[in-house]
What we know:
The chain is 27% helix and 29% strand. The protein has 305 residues and is α/β, with parallel strands linked by helices. The chain has two domains: 2-158, HUPs (Rossmann fold, 3-Layer(aba) Sandwich); 183-297, Elongation Factor Tu (Ef-tu), domain 3 (Beta Barrel), CATH 2.40.30. The strands form three sheets. A six-stranded parallel β-sheet has the order 1-4-3-2-5-6, sandwiched between helices. A six-stranded antiparallel beta barrel has the order 9-10-13-12-11-14. Helix 1 (29-39) links the parallel strand 2 and strand 3. The longest helix is centred in the last third of the chain and has 13 residues, at 285-297. The N and C termini lie far apart (47 Å).
Amino acid sequence: MIILESLDKISDQRSPFVLTIGNFDGVHLGHQKLLTEVKTNEGLKSLVVTFEPHPVEYFDRNKTFKKLFPASYQNEHIGSLGIDYLLRMKFDQHLATMSYDEFLNFFVQHLSIKKIVIGHDLKIGKDRKGDRAAIRSWCQKSGIQFQIVEPLEVKGQVISSTFIKTLIDRNRFEELPKFLGRLYSTNGTVVHGDKRGRLIGFPTANLTYSGSLYLPQFGVYQTRTSWRDRRCDSITNIGKTPTFKSDELVKIETHLFDFNEDIYGEKITVEFLKFIRSEQKFSGIEEIKRQIALDVASLGRDKKI
């Protein structure tokens, strides 16, 4: 898959294209259903258009909106479905004030768009006036094929990014693969931390974290961590380490069991399996060590600290 920031980079602009538009936050099973429909159009190059930042994030003056996963994660999972091109459009004032028909005409002017496939709830353009009915009418007038992909349901529950966030909030990690198609995870580069874990015999890999991403509640989790071609059982703390500091910096700290490699600067992926407890403030190092031993024992392991 070729990732673009503008249509000028498409080398085969005269080829017939099928176009889809959306945010695809999480690339969950509902998104995968839609993208698979896009890819099944034989003889047509597939173009997926998404936005950076997320339009809700752009309009959110209080900055409370959080994406499920970073752009790199989205790129990886959309690419795995065999899509030809992914256009990451910068969502700015110009795009925010563009009408839906101006937006669609932009693609017709640059590419040979033969078909448009959309999700059931897509709304594009100024004031979100480009809903399924409006886009259908525009396609009919433009001589372009049109298809709506209806939502995917699991046991009566419509799959959506919002519902997945609800499951994360409720620590229902064992249910997430039914909706995401995989375990919920976060990834990042291992950076140097305060070294307190190593001092107490419980070293952790500290991950970089983007404040724009959605995270589980502060606490301790049973996890599984991947590094290169290795997968290790692990235990992860998300929080502000209130015992030692009072700032707002959120940290993701993971201890990998039976692991003794130098992975500073390396990328790791942490999959969440089970919630253990909420974050706590302790009286000091000895109380922390006792609690860590209890956390590890809850996983059926014996770890002397």
